[in-house]
Automatic annotation (TrEMBL):
It comes from the Bacteria. The lineage of its organism: Bacteria, Pseudomonadati, Bacteroidota, Bacteroidia, Bacteroidales. This is Uroporphyrinogen-III synthase. InterPro entries: 4pyrrol_syn_uPrphyn_synt_sf, 4pyrrol_synth_uPrphyn_synth. Residues 25-235 form the Tetrapyrrole biosynthesis uroporphyrinogen III synthase domain.
Length: 252
């Protein structure tokens, strides 16, 4: 097979049951895992520069567990006492349940959607329209806030963490036949670490429409895309690609 060595731009799976390991064995390919990006929390000093006073708010909007972690970290660093009356609005149930790490779970103060889409939260937010909402986000957040604006929700976006590129050693080998990406920031990191990168025969795969657009905007060729009807996950898309490649080689 032409593809022998694959780089997945995510941390190595913690479970041996990951489909990636099955694919590696099935097709006899090597799969490495290396995040191209990492998340850093803003320091208390940096957050204070935003002039946002957390105690002024009566409710928090969370769209990621990472946001939950950095909200409570900043509160601890700045010695902010969170009142028991604080309400939390989460885009998924998993984020809502994750709050148990930091606060007692009570249905009367924690509300959530199911699909991760903001529109599912709007009925809860409008029902509690007297609240002053703090919306915890990253520096590269893509969430559409027009729904909040149209619903006349009183909110303030607060950047609490940022995405930065992982630094590769200039002398380390980068001899992969395929690269798999999961965010536009990953593409930006590739170009930052390897400004002279030439794609040539290297296959590039990605997950998500915004990542696919970032690949195209960078002038790169997109060879594998997920999710699709036939490939709802990145591993399914990879399996399909390698299967087709093996079939073509068998015919030759």
């Amino acid at each position: 097979m032409k593809v022998k060595k694959i780089l997945v731009s995510q941390p190595r799976p913690t479970s041996d049951k990951s489909p990636y390991f099955d694919i590696a064995q099935k097709y006899g390919v090597d799969i490495d895992f290396r995040p191209f990006i990492k998340v850093e929390g803003l320091t208390a000093k940096e957050f204070r520069q935003s002039k946002i006073t957390i105690s002024d708010y009566t409710a928090i909007i969370f769209t990621a567990r990472t946001a939950v972690d950095h909200f409570f970290r900043l509160c601890e660093e700045m010695r902010v006492t969170i009142p028991d009356t604080m309400k939390y609005f989460c885009t998924t149930e998993s984020i809502a349940l994750y709050l148990q790490k930091y606060t007692l779970y009570r249905k009367r103060k924690i509300f959530h959607g199911n699909t991760g889409k903001m529109e599912e939260l709007i009925p809860f937010l409008t029902k509690h329209n007297k609240e002053n909402y703090l919306y915890a986000v990253s520096d590269v957040h893509k969430e559409d806030t027009s729904l909040l604006d149209n619903a006349k929700i009183r909110y303030t976006k607060a950047v609490m963490y940022r995405t930065v590129s992982t630094q590769f050693d200039p002398n380390e080998k980068f001899d992969y036949d395929m690269l798999l990406f999961f965010s536009p920031a990953g593409i930006a990191s590739l170009l930052k670490n390897f400004p002279d990168f030439k794609q040539d025969d290297v296959k590039i795969g990605c997950f998500g429409l915004t990542t696919a657009q970032a690949v195209k905007d960078a002038g790169l060729r997109l060879d594998i895309e997920a999710p699709t009807v036939s490939a709802p996950s990145m591993t399914a898309a990879l399996d399909n690609f390698l299967r087709d490649e093996a079939a073509e080689e068998a015919k030759a």
